[in-house]
Amino acid sequence: MPFLTAGYPSLDITRAAIPAIAEAGASVLEIGIPFSDPIADGPVISASMHEALGSGATVSGVFAAVRDARRRSTVGLVAMVSVSIVTRIGVDSFIAQAADAGFDGLIIPDLDTSTAPQLAASCAKRNLALALLVSPTTPQARIAEIASCCSGFVYLLARAGLTGERESSPEIAGPVSAIRRATKLPIAAGFGISTPEHVAAVTQYADAAIVGSALVRRMNSKTPVEDAVAFTRLLATGLRAGAATL
User: Fold this and answer.
1) Would 246 be classed as within a structural domain?
2) Total number of domains constituting the chain
3) 30 is annotated as an active-site residue
């Protein structure tokens, strides 16, 4: 489940990269909608979002790029978006625009569970999945509360802290087991997953491995689409080596 910052290095690159990365082995793509104060993102993704915003990327521009890419690919597309963007546009309006653009779901990392039911209901009307985040230290009762607000999948933070590349594989067997006690929804794990070996380790337990910073960094090049495709193919070798067992 590769992550792209929409508009980085340009919306034209995003438009071209989505179908190309899908063909390279991605099952689902996570598309980050640029935000001036990224939530829990490390330096690579934060810098990519600021650059995208500086180049004029807007929510409507992202939707237009995704709509165009959707015509050329059936890959699952999930938007990572701050709740402040959703509420500024209006919950129903944002969700309608996202669905019409071709998104299949939303990840809202800063959505509070107390306000999640309204948003979840609006997503359900447009058949959009809604994923919230569970950390490795979230208590069991809180996991159940978060999972009850989700549809489609649950997003597990594979590590505490910020996004970014790491050398070691995350240890997620315990957190995955805790989430599976609370829900039957699939689990996608992200944060610090950077190599095919990490993907293999993560997909022994989780249903998807999200790779962000390592991919975004490689798109800072003269051939961003080609480099993203090559890296996705490499990551997919790890996916084939892993198999969810819990």
Assistant:
1) no
2) 1
3) yes
Return d(Cα 172, Cα 48) in angstroms, integer.
Answer: 27
CA separation, residue 7 to residues 20, 21, 68 (Å): 16, 15, 14
- 31: helix, coil or strand? strand
Q: Kindly report the average pLDDT of the chain as a whole number.
A: 92
**Among candidate residues 188, 17, 47, the one with its CA nearest the CA of residue 107:** 188
Domain range enclosing 237: 3-241
Please state, as a whole number, how many other Cβ atoms lie within 10 Å of the Cβ of residue 112: 10
Give the distance from CA 115 to its chain's centroid: 21
User: For residue 2, is pLDDT > 60?
Assistant: yes
| 203 found inside a domain | yes
- The catalytic residue among 12, 23, 30, 207 is 30
pLDDT at 160: 58
Q: What is the CATH number of the domain that holds 170?
A: 3.20.20.70
Q: CA-to-CA distance for 173 and 35, rounded, in angstroms?
A: 32
Task: State the CB neighbour count (10 A cutoff) for residue 168.
Answer: 11
Residue 244: what pLDDT? 46
Count helices and strands (H / E) in the chain. 11, 9
Is 23 among the residues known to form the active site?
no
Mean pLDDT of 23-48: 88
Please, what is the Cα angle at 208 between 212 and 204, to 5 degrees?
Answer: 120
Cα atoms in the Cβ-side hemisphere of radius 13 Å centred on 89: 17
Coil, helix or strand at residue 197: helix
Q: For residue 53, is it within any domain? A: yes
Active-site residue identified among 41, 68, 104, 207: 41
